[in-house]
Amino acid sequence: LAGVDDPFNDAGLPNADPFGMGAALTRFNGFLILVPIAWSVFESLRGQRRSVHAGHAAALTLPALGASIFPLYLWWRWGDPLLYLRSKDLGNNKRATPLWELAERVARDGWARLRDPAAGGMLDWITGFLATLLFVTLTVLLFRRKERGGALYCAATLLLLLHSGNLDGMPRFVLSLFPCFLPLGELLRREIVVAFGYALLSVGTGVVLLHRFVHWIIVA
After folding, report:
1. Are 74 and 80 in contact (CB under 8 A)?
2. What's the 3-state SS for the chain?
3. For residue range 1-57, what is the model confidence (pLDDT) as tens digits?
4. Fewer CB within a 10 Å sphere, N or C end of the chain?
5. Model confidence over 84-117: pLDDT tens digits?
6. Rounded to two decimals, what is the model's pTM?
7. Whole-number Cα distances in Å, 25 to 35, 40, 117, 166
């Protein structure tokens, strides 16, 4: 979505909305791409004194259409547009949960695994917690850098993830938060010691996770 910051070309036609439609169609949280696109439309109208035209409508409606296609198919095929969500209730430990309950559960699980490391799951808890902490911090940095479109997308996705009841799979889910890698890359370029430590930690963690994966231990 390279056109998020400037979704319209000189003729006023949208540049990024086909990609926004694809993102909304192929990922569960893809519909959240509407947040930065809507912000870009607002900025375009406010900053350049433009009037609303077909480019703005396409930039907003095509991603919304992409997000609607799969629920509409489920409705047509099985009579339930929310079948995907209902299927997740079967054998899945993710439930809509308030943030304070998530914080309590994360603290309780971390303490339990610290007291009994032999029970397993300590590495999963650490990687999930650190990934959450890192990407929340990077999202705050995006707001401070006034990159509001990307920051709003990351914040909306993180809020969705943090209301799922646990941090399972968080290292995998946050990889789609591509704007967060901009301040991270700038920090690593500027601070060579931090970059070295980051690379060392990443390689070490990757080796450990690869070892677990080849021994049929789930890796998120």
Report:
1. yes
2. CCCCCCCECCCCCECCHHHHHHHHHHCHHHHHHHHHHHHHHHHHHHHCCCCCCHHHHHHHHHHHHHHHHHHHHHHHHHCCCCHHHHHCCCCCCCCCCCHHHHHHHHHHHHHHHHHCHHHCCHHHHHHHHHHHHHHHHHHHHHHHCCCHHHHHHHHHHHHHHHCCCCCCCHHHHHHHCHHHHHHHHHHHHHCHHHHHHHHHHHHHHHHHHHHHHHCCCCCC
3. 444 444 444 434 445 567 778 888 887 788 888 888 888 888 877 766 666 667 777
4. C
5. 877 766 666 777 788 888 889 889 988 888 887 7
6. 0.80
7. 15, 20, 41, 25
Q: What is the CA radius of gyration of the chain?
A: 20
First to last CA, the chain: 25
The tokens describing 198, both together, are 């980051």
**Residue 88, token pair as written in the block:** 């997740």
- The answer to whether the beta carbons of residues 127 and 110 sit under 8 Å apart is no
Contact, 135 vs 179, CB < 8 A?
no
Q: Which two tokens stand for residue 17?
A: 């909305």
**Residue holding tokens 């308030």?**
98
What are the residues whose beta carbons fall under 8 Å from the beta carbon of 218, sequence distance 6 or more?
none
Tell me, what amino acid is at 15? N
